[in-house]
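Pilot study result, target chain (497 residues):
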Amino acid sequence: MKKTSLFIVLSMLFAGGIGYLAGHNTPQPSATSAPVQPQKERKVLYWYDPMVPNQHFDKPGKSPFMDMALVPMYDDDSAVPGTVKIDPSTVQNMGVRTAKVTRANLDRQLDTVGYINPDEHRIQVVQTRAAGWVERLHVSAVNDPVKRGQLLLELYSPDLVAAQEEYLLARQNRNETDGSALLQAAQAKLSLLGLGSKQIAQLQAGNKPSRLIAYYAPGNGVVTELNVRQGAQVAPGMNLYSLVDLSSVWVTAEIPENQGGWIHEGMAASITVPAYPGKQLSGHVEYVYPNVAQATRTLQVRIRLANPDGLLKPGMFANVALKDGTGQAALLVPSEAVITTGRRSVVIVADGDGKFHPVEVHPGRESGGQYEILDGLTEGQTIVLSGQFMIDSESNLRTALDRLQSPENTRKQDAKMPMPPSYKGHGKVNAIDMEDGSVNITHDPIPNLKWPSMTMDFSVKDVQMLKAIKPGDIVDFDLAESSKGEYVITGISKGAH
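Predicted structure:
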């Protein structure tokens, strides 16, 4: 028992000595200090510039806006400026949907419109090389289908009749001197006047000139142009018919000018036409036209499609999806999450516990219902896709967000009519600009705004207050946020050094 008591006493003396030595080698806490509590590691959500709190960065560094270091925002920090608290029942009634900011490959895709046009490489014309008169017109209407070798018309031409007679006479005299040369010349003349080898063979077999010369379709297709009628006179070089083969057609797609930079020949295309719902056609960009239409500010691309059944008619409307599979990894959000006001783009970030705040972002490419985000968000953040506050006007963004608060909170705010919060600052006056109504101050840190010590210009609410100070003065000042989001000095006076 005595040994046990002695051990306890020695242990207490040893602990007391250690405590005494430690007390002389560490700073003494103040009388108001609270007991030291073990601290857990704080999680950094993002870094930001206190002067531009809506701009977020995924790593520390120097602010691109001010000559100062970026400040971390921790998960246990108070809400950033612009944060609103939404009543849970309101959120539920509005059907707010959210999604995560992700990083993935963005394959560029453009959904646009196009039109079915004839394949201009398959257009043929029928001409006459001799003067004459159309005595028989066998195909007499535009859009009539024709087959290769089908008889189109029969032409009476005195020049062709005379040329046939010359040829037959040369054949009769071919055994005489230079007869062979005359025969060759007569046959060449017939060819130059448009007679084919088959017609010349018929002339040889019949040994009699034909009064009417037949013209045949050079290929399959439909008549797109008819310039003669029965009995009409024709002249050498005149177009009698234009034919187009529709077994292959072009889809001419319209590309907005701002999307033209990544469109190229060979990229895949998917086409649908309203006339055949559910039928999807595949092709590729065959040609990118070299000019931009001034009226529509669009350029055009050409896609060739096989049309063996003739289902695709020239003039039909087409929906075209162009896709480039060479996308690179990017930060992505659904397109519906981005509010574009004309001057800037905003995304609503969900902070949890019913808190939301707007963040200005810089969107890049848009494809397949997703926007590439170049700046403003980080991977993993939760953003709002739909809700009453998803509006498209920057001017009433704040009003719309305020309306999302619960009715009870709204009534309380209307009754209290709170003024904008004011922040205290202390610093040294460097320069005063009476005309501009501003003052340059090197100020101490302002904890409530998370501002470090820095030198900056401030506008003042009333320029008259600048008359009471001069450069070099140590001053105390009050700051308040203006309607434009800038911090303005609302009061200033000389302070203690």
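One observation from the pilot: The longest strand covers residues 281-293. A full batch analysis is planned for the follow-on phase.
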